[in-house]
Amino acid sequence: MTTNDEQKRHIYTVLDYIKNNLHTDLSLENLAEVSTYSPYHFHRLFNRIMGETPSDYVKRVRMEEAAHYLIYEPNMSVTEIAFKCGFSSNSYFTSAFKAFFKHSPKAWREGAYLEKFPRPYLDSKKSKQQSTNPKEPSETRGYNGFQWVDLARVKIERLPEMSVLFLQHFGAYTEEISNTWDQIYQYTETRDLITDETRMIGVPHNNPYITPENLCRYDCCITIPQGFQPEPHMKTKVFAASKYVFYEFEEAVSFADRGLLIECYSELYSYWLPKSGYKCLSTPMEIIELDSSSDRFKMEPKIVKIGLPILPK
Asked: For this UniProt entry, which segments traverse the membrane (predicted)?
């Protein structure tokens, strides 16, 4: 049996529901209801499209989200993180986390995650103790620890509510993503939706140092005018109006050089946020441009700036 675009659209709706409702009951029956399929058909379809059962997917996403909070939310207790990510008790969360990441939540928070990450972070006790970096930030030297991020290029902006059309890419956040950007750009351009006001927005749902590359998910989004009704197989969503901290690159970055972004994200999360008075609200955002200078039919997507939605602490 082949999987059609309509079936994928229903399953992708469930993925967004899971991400936004990790603290709730994500049983097979509840997820099947979101998908509009019967539990039996939903389970088979989800497994075929995602390569994981619904329960395995939910467990993995909960673990990865908890791992992220343990690193970037030092003021949240382990118990708070456990309940926020949908675990019924701290003891169950601790044993499940250790089985998944081979470290306890406490050890992970204190520096065990550095086995997966390329650099130390400000809020890690272990990295504070072990760092020999002379530029590491201190209370007296403010932001002097930045190595990749130029603070002069860090800006806070408020973006309005935006309706977008989007396609999802699964896999590494590298040059393979170009095909997805090309598909959605061609769709909008041939329908005369591209204007001077159009924004191209990338949404990376995963940290590739926590999530295996082949399981990473990325939304390629293009803003659309109010009232536009796409074909049923195309997905739309709305970005709520929000404040963002953006870091704009001096030169747009190719997806092939995405390793540079990881360093910049690291410094925004770990050096800028703890001292800024803000906390990160949800998933990051990337502002994209298409470079068609070399070949009209092979436009290369590049990242102009990266941003985090923020809220006062």
From this structure: none
Statement to judge: residues 194 and 303 lie in one domain: yes
SS3 content of the chain, % helix, strand, coil (to 5): 40, 20, 35
Taking the C-alpha atoms of residue 301 and residue 48, their distance in angstroms, rounded to an integer, is 30
H/E element, 72: helix 54-72
Q: Residue 122 above 50 pLDDT? A: no
State pTM to two decimals.
0.82
- Taking alpha carbons only, the member of 197, 159, 172 closest to residue 255 is 172
Three-state DSSP state, 231: coil
SS3 state of residue 159: strand
Residue pair 226/163 in contact by the 8 Å Cβ criterion: yes
Are 67 and 5 in contact, with CB atoms under 8 Å apart? Answer: no
Residue 222 lies in a domain: yes
pLDDT in tens, 193-209: 999 999 999 999 998 88
User: Which residue range forms the structural domain that includes residue 241?
Assistant: 154-312
For residue 217, what are its two tokens?
A: 């998910």
Q: Are 243 and 311 in contact (CB under 8 A)?
A: yes
Do residue 40 and residue 165 come from a single domain?
A: no
In this structure, is residue 113 part of a structural domain? no
Rounded to a whole number, what is the distance in angstroms from the first to the last CA of the chain?
A: 50
Does some domain include residue 145?
no
